[in-house]
Specification:
eight-stranded mixed sheet, globular, alpha/beta, N-(1-d-carboxylethyl)-l-norvaline Dehydrogenase, domain 2, two-stranded antiparallel sheet, Rossmann fold, 10 strands
Length: 338
């Protein structure tokens, strides 16, 4: 039971808010943190996160704060729910001495620009004294809009320490939120991050009216690229057929809740990337991840043609129709996964 657990949630977006409500419902003492004093005050006044998750009532006894020390001090677990490109700056504000034996559970999906580090590597870089075995990643096909409405959902928790994995499973598992275990931190982190690139591509397929055949091919060959890079970086190939890989890829490329698919759809309709991103409240992680994945592919000499074309579309204004034509007219080859 988690009745007496003290849990801080770093990030009051839709996913952080959903997990805060889930854990509070299990009896944990939850503190929800937002970087914005205005958002904190709004939640306190309205009892709802009107910016990111307006349909969910925030329990009156849940603490909401903009104070990093309050959310992190004397906690059994910290859930890292900030967008991946901001994780480093948030971690740098933590009072490291107060972490003690706190478990860090990351739910952000991305690869840091510039450093090309996964989120577990960012944690190690910013908190060099933090034991890697107290870190876990929670990932899978889990749109907040469905989890908060108790729709049956399955995800995976991964840590290099089995006891940490077991604790995360026990902490988050409910009758509508099933958690599987894994020891493949590298694979789960990469799968959850890289699928967002393919989701943008799937949206472009929809916006350009390419059809179901095109999107099915994109998803399948996109998964091949994800696995190809993952294996080079030390991941277990089987992970990419699981919930954090194929599962998350399917939901993110198909769902109306997907922010990344939405970005792609608008691009496919002819709108410029900066305009689409400028009108969004939430973060589409796949845009920044495309930059990192493209650099990783070049660094490790991994062939990722879809990622290459997505990078050209997002950062060099390439016409999606032209990019698709180039993918379709490459030299014929056998279908291989590795």
């Amino acid at each position: 039971m988690i009745q007496d657990m003290k849990i801080g949630i770093l990030g009051a977006g839709s996913w952080g808010t959903t997990l805060a409500e889930l854990l509070h419902g299990k009896g944990a003492q939850v503190t929800l943190w937002s970087w914005s004093e205005r958002d904190v005050e709004n939640i306190r006044i309205t009892g709802r996160n009107t910016v990111y998750l307006p349909d969910v009532a925030i329990p009156a006894d849940m603490r909401v704060t903009a104070d990093v020390e309050e959310v992190s001090a004397d906690k059994d677990m910290l859930v890292l729910a900030t967008p991946s490109q901001f994780l480093r700056s948030v971690l740098a504000r933590l009072p490291v001495a107060s972490l003690g034996d706190t478990l860090l559970v990351n739910v952000a999906k991305g690869i840091e620009n510039g450093s090309l580090l996964r989120m577990s590597e960012v944690v190690s870089d910013v908190l060099p004294g933090f034991a890697a075995g107290r870190y876990a990643i929670l990932s899978g096909p889990s749109h907040a809009e469905e989890v908060c409405n108790r729709r049956p959902t399955s995800v995976v928790a991964a840590s290099i320490d089995r006891a940490t994995t077991a604790t995360v499973i026990e902490t988050f598992m409910t009758d509508f939120f099933r958690v599987y275990g894994s020891d493949d931190v590298v694979g789960v982190e990469l799968a959850g991050s890289l699928k967002n690139i393919i989701a943008i591509g799937a949206g472009i397929c929809d916006g350009s009216r390419f059809g179901d055949n095109t999107k099915a091919a994109l998803i399948t060959r996109g998964l091949a690229e994800i696995r190809r890079l993952g294996e080079v970086l030390g991941a277990d190939a089987h992970t990419f057929a699981g919930l954090s890989g194929l599962g998350d890829l399917v939901v993110t490329t198909m769902s109306r809740h997907s922010r990344n698919r939405h970005v792609g759809e608008e691009i496919g309709r002819g709108r410029p990337v900066h305009e689409v991103l400028g009108e969004m409240t939430m973060v589409a992680e796949g845009v920044d991840t495309t930059r990192s994945a493209h650099e990783l592919a070049l660094r490790h000499n991994v062939d990722m043609p879809i990622v290459r074309e997505m990078h050209a579309i997002l950062f060099h204004g390439k016409d999606p129709v032209e990019a698709t034509q180039e993918l379709m007219t490459r030299e014929a080859k056998n279908e291989v996964w590795s």
